[in-house]
Write a structure and sequence with these properties.
It is built from 13 helices and 12 strands. It is an alpha/beta fold. It binds pyridoxal-5'-phosphate (PLP).
């Protein structure tokens, strides 16, 4: 395949007919845990599958190309990918993280900080007055999540990466919510891109996996060495499935974001909804930044219902087509209540500081027909509106 191929072509065709023995169109899966040495004291391309594996490497190459990085490491989960990036910092180093990051990332950072492995400052990365004093503390690593989970806040990657570089820190961007189809953080100056491949990259809710893509070859080497040391690597079969999912990434996410825009517009019209967080809406405070930094607005959104937890319960019980489940980025639409699900482990105080209220619901918009998605949401909204009318009467 030509080096000049467009991203859509890389996603659809990387590794096609790579099998020189049988010319299989679909790449084979190499499940073998070990590989024969060519002879005494001679090493081959692969020796042992914890260190490297052809199926895993094929996915890594595809993701590195899509993100514009020097290489990638495929991990066993998105959390293992976050942790792999954390292996680059030392005791006493400061990590700057968003105060509204994914709950699992928040928990991991706190757990490692509590064991004295490094220091963490959680800040509002969209607040210029919070950035200056935080960077003045001399961080070694800046974690960015944009758009953030679940509030869909967008931060300026270029601005943060350039401040980080000036402070001698590296920048890692969790690109799970958009995928390289809609955002390429390395182009904006990031050193690392993190993915939970569980989400859009695989896209079919049948693999848990992760990846870290690094902009520079020395970092790729360091991350690969750590992944080999800790063994937090992805399995070959999972890599095969994820590459298979990646084939349709572009059309999936483009169609899903069209649905998301319609759903967001629909929700803004409901009297039961107090606010919709979707960067594609002109009313979103980071709309212009999202439009300049992203190739699209994605298929994740969140909204708040009037009437507190009671409304949330009624909505979730009555909504159709949206399954109440954690995770996101699959072909099927899901609904989550961050306060009791994805972000419950953060604790109430941290949730309040991040702005994650008990009335917030998060939607991952799938590939279903737009009309059916809206009909499903209408059922939930009708249950909430019924109760507010009866209370008002
Ligand atoms: N990063 C983000 C933004 C996520 O939403 C998630 C999971 O929801 C993760 C990382 C962790 O990924 P995984 O569940 O694959 O470990």
């Amino acid at each position: 395949m030509s080096e000049q191929n467009k991203p859509e072509t890389i996603a659809a065709a990387h590794g096609v007919v790579a099998d020189s023995d049988f010319h299989s169109v679909t790449p084979p899966i190499y499940l073998s845990s070990t590989f024969a040495f060519p002879g005494f004291a001679q090493s081959g391309r692969h020796e042992y599958s914890r260190t490297s594996n052809p199926s895993r490497d094929m996915l890594a190459e595809a993701l590195a190309k899509l993100e514009g990085g020097a290489g990638a490491v495929i991990t066993s989960s998105g959390m293992a990918a976050v942790d792999l990036v954390l292996s680059t910092v030392r005791r006493g180093d400061l990590v700057l993280a968003p105060h509204d990051c994914y709950g699992g990332t928040y928990r991991l950072l706190c757990a490692r900080r509590d064991r004295d492995q490094f220091d963490v400052a959680f800040i509002d990365q969209g607040d210029a007055s919070a950035l200056a004093p935080a960077f003045a503390r001399g961080p070694k690593l800046v974690l960015v999540e944009t758009p953030s989970n679940p509030l869909m806040r967008v931060v300026d990657i270029r601005e943060i990466a350039s401040r980080a570089r000036a402070a001698g820190a590296k920048t890692a961007v969790d690109n799970t919510f958009l995928s390289p189809a809609l955002q390429r953080p390395i182009v904006h100056g990031a050193d690392f891109v993190i993915h939970s491949t569980t989400k859009y990259l695989n896209g079919h809710s049948d693999v848990v996996g992760g990846a870290v893509i690094a902009a520079n070859p020395t970092d790729v080497e360091e991350l690969s060495a750590w992944a080999n040391l800790t063994g937090a690597i992805g399995a070959p079969f999972d890599a095969y499935l994820t590459l298979r999912g990646l084939r349709t990434l572009f059309p999936r996410i483009q169609r899903q974001q069209q649905n998301a825009m319609s759903v967001a517009r629909f929700l803004t019209k409901s009297p039961a909804v107090s606010i919709v967080h979707y960067p594609g809406l002109e009313t979103h405070s980071n709309h212009l930044l999202a439009a300049s930094q992203q190739e699209g607005f994605g298929a994740m959104l969140s909204f708040e219902l009037r009437g507190g937890t009671d409304s949330v319960r009624r909505f979730v019980d009555a909504v159709r087509l949206f399954t109440l489940a954690e995770s996101l980025g699959g072909v099927e639409s899901l609904i989550a209540h961050p306060a009791t699900m994805t972000h419950s482990g953060m604790g109430e105080e941290a949730r309040r500081a991040a702005g994650i209220s008990d009335s917030l619901l998060r939607l991952s918009i799938g590939l279903e027909a737009e009309i059916d998605l809206i009909a499903g949401l209408k059922c939930g909204l009708a249950a909430v509106e019924r109760i507010s009318q009866s209370e008002g009467s």
